[in-house]
Write a structure and sequence with these properties.
This protein is mainly beta. A hairpin with a 3-residue loop joins strand 7 and strand 8. It has helices spanning 2-6, 113-119, 164-167, 178-181; strands at 28-35, 39-47, 50-56, 67-76, 85-87, 95-107, 121-128, 132-140, 147-152.
Amino acid sequence: MASYRAKRDSSRTPEPAGDSGRRPGGPVFVVQRHEASSTHFDFRLEIDGVLVSWAVPKGPSVDPDDRRLAIRTEDHPLGYADFEGRIPQGEYGAGTVIVWDTGHFDVLTTGSARQALADGHLTVSLHGTKLAGGFSLIRRPSGPREQWLLLKKNDEGADRRRKPAETQPESVVSDRTNKDFA
């Protein structure tokens, strides 16, 4: 969490500064649509008391044929799972954030989620509003910023025709869009 806190001035940004504690119902996932210097989706999984996070430039896909780049970012506090709002200009990540999807997930990889991350291959089953079923995160050889692939498994949640990242821009929490926070 030191990296998260070092990038933010809690007196200037409405982002949560600390943890809100474990949530009932199993580990949470959240995908936040973030309109910053470029629009991207932040894919976050609750693992060991923090939200392990990736920036997904094109957003998650429900088409198993799609491969989405996911760039590992700093861990976020659990309280960030509920964050919607506007990060002021001049602050890290300036722009608007909405909760694009959220729910709980199950780890499908053998062993712990933390070990799967260390090994570079984590598979989870998401139980969200827009995203459901199996997704894999696979680490790629990369430079200083960890690059991963986010892949949809070919299961009951797969749909090659549906493009939720493009056609469903609203929050599942507030029904607002990023423009509503601008």
